[in-house]
Design goal:
The complex is a heterodimer of chains A (201) and B (298).
Chain A: H1 5-41, H2 56-87, H3 94-110, H4 118-142, H5 153-179
Chain B: H1 2-29, H2 33-108, E1 118-125, E2 135-138, E3 151-154, E4 157-165, E5 170-174, E6 182-186, E7 192-198, E8 201-209, E9 228-231, E10 242-251, E11 258-264, E12 273-277
Antiparallel strand pairs in B: 1-2, 1-12, 2-5, 3-4, 3-12, 4-5, 6-7, 6-9, 7-8, 8-11, 9-10, 10-11
Classes of the chains: A mainly alpha (201), B alpha+beta (298).
Chain lengths: 201, 298
């Protein structure tokens, strides 16, 4: 047995543990996202305010950007958008692209600036949803979809953002649980740990 | 240094995701078959779960609807009572007109979408998103012989076209969708043109391509207000399906073409049942050199 073998064993165990937790995070995210998607497809196809429903897939994407950071958050947002695209009449990839851009931006600008508070999350979700809906409509018009930008857009943006901000009170703990981010953690603690001094030869 | 590397990697990942989305968009626009199939499979897999959740949450949603639309329902009820009274008196006139129509059909040999197999479907859900007001789901799919592009009608007239088809579910894009272009014929003048829905108004349709403004300035050449508009022969859909009635005729901005606004015959907002015409549609767009529809005016 060489001197480096215990170190290799420790690292292998760590990798396995890390792999297990990633699988759990993915599973939890799928559960949370499917629940949101089913609510959107059924309940919120009827329950609307002034004809406008919340954007639950966008809500999950925004919260993922906030709680998981821009790197992981953007991937989660992409998957959330892609799944939502399957049910929308607009081309596949449109919601995915808009979700990625906004989740990445929100995750990036808030990463090291603030500590989490409920009010802050609410405001960020409001702004994020407004940005996502607007980017979606703009991108849609750019790729030739008619009727996305009209007099109705400001109303949709405001009401959908309000809906999402309100629902974030319930959804935020669920997404936090899914991405494995503790509720009392500050954003500064979410930073990745410094590179391990241990090196495998 | 480590922060800069992390930032660089995350930007690289962002770029990769955006490129993936752009690739999917391009493939979707080009009608890449496997992509449609994959989406259809995903919807098929989830459909039983969606239906089950719908059954469970439906009554709760109904309570919300009743709470916030009670006044609307009451006024709608009163309006319908008046309508029933009016229709009772119009019944006799209707019978006479029906007789005249049948004799006219006998004389000219024109058929009103006859010989086409039909399938009645229930409207399951209206739009799921905030930009899908003109999309609805119906409870028939390719197991029932439905294919993308088929015309969907009610007894009032043209409702829309089948857009996506899953095993037991399809989505229909309503005629009120501004993206859905339909070839129509104005019965008053016999002219054919291309029209589409008007954004923000699901009751109207505008014909803005293919109809020239009279060069002589003779306004009698324009279609009369109230005259019927039907689907044109050579369009993607069977001919002579009622689309609506002319509401107004105006010149286009350049003054060369007609902008004909049509009040849609079918109410596409609150449908319970629709009929799918099981006629395989033409894949070709209704514009081109061999098309009966001229290119849009500048």
């Amino acid at each position: 047995m060489t001197a480096s073998q215990p170190v290799q064993n420790v690292l292998r165990r760590r990798r396995l543990l890390a792999g297990g937790s990633v699988a759990m995070i993915v599973l939890r995210l799928i559960i949370v996202y499917l629940f949101a998607l089913l609510l959107q497809l059924t309940f919120f196809s009827q329950v609307r305010v002034a004809g406008v429903a919340p954007e639950l897939p966008a809500l999950v994407a925004i919260l993922a950007g906030l709680f998981a950071g821009p790197r992981q958050g953007s991937v989660i947002a992409f998957c959330a958008g892609l799944m939502w695209d399957v049910y929308l009449s607009t081309p596949l990839g449109l919601a995915a692209a808009s979700f990625v851009v906004v989740a990445y931006t929100l995750g990036g600008i808030t990463e090291d600036l603030f500590h989490d508070t409920r009010l802050q999350t609410l405001l960020l979700v409001f702004v994020g949803t407004a940005a996502m809906v607007t980017v979606y409509a703009l991108l849609g018009e750019v790729v030739g979809q008619r009727g996305l930008i009209d007099d109705r857009l400001p109303r949709v943006v405001l009401i959908a953002s309000g809906w999402n901000a309100l629902l974030s009170l319930v959804a935020a703990p669920a997404v936090r649980w899914a991405v494995g981010s503790g509720p009392a953690r500050s954003r500064t603690r979410r930073r990745e740990p410094p590179a391990s001094p241990l090196k495998v030869r | 240094m480590a922060v800069a590397q992390r930032s660089g990697r995350s930007r690289y990942r962002l770029l990769l995701l955006i490129l993936t989305a752009a690739t999917l968009l391009t493939l979707d626009f080009r009608g890449f078959g496997p992509l449609d199939t994959a989406q259809s499979r995903v919807r098929d897999v989830l459909e039983p779960v969606v239906s089950a959740v719908d059954v469970v949450l439906g009554p709760v949603a109904e309570v919300w609807t009743v709470m916030f639309t009670y006044n609307d329902l009451r006024s709608e009820n009163e309006r319908l009572r008046d309508e029933v009274d009016r229709l009772a008196s119009a019944d006799i006139r209707g019978a006479a007109e029906q007789d005249a129509l049948e004799r006219l059909l006998d004389a000219t040999g024109v058929t009103f979408v006859e010989g086409v197999e039909r399938l009645t479907a229930t409207v399951l859900r209206d739009s799921v998103g905030n930009f899908d007001d003109d999309v609805m789901s119906i409870d028939v799919g390719h197991r029932d012989g439905v294919a993308p592009g088929m015309a969907v009608v009610t007894s009032a007239g043209f409702v829309g076209r089948v857009e996506t088809v899953d095993a037991a579910l399809s989505t229909v894009t309503a005629v009120s969708d501004p993206s859905l272009v339909v070839g129509v014929r104005l019965l008053d003048t016999g002219d054919v043109g291309l029209g589409h829905g008007m954004a923000g108004d699901p009751t109207q349709f505008v014909v803005d391509a293919g109809l020239r403004w009279p060069e002589t300035g003779d306004l009698s050449e324009l279609p009369a207000v109230g005259s019927p508009v039907v689907t044109a022969a050579g369009s993607r859909y069977p001919a002579d399906i009622p689309v609506g009635r002319v509401a107004s005729v105006e010149p286009s901005e350049a003054g060369l073409a007609q902008l004909v606004t049509v009040d849609l015959a079918a109410d596409v907002q609150d449908l319970g049942y629709v009929t799918v015409l099981l006629l395989t549609p033409s894949d070709e767009a209704p514009v081109g050199p061999d098309s009966p529809f001229p290119e849009p005016s500048p």
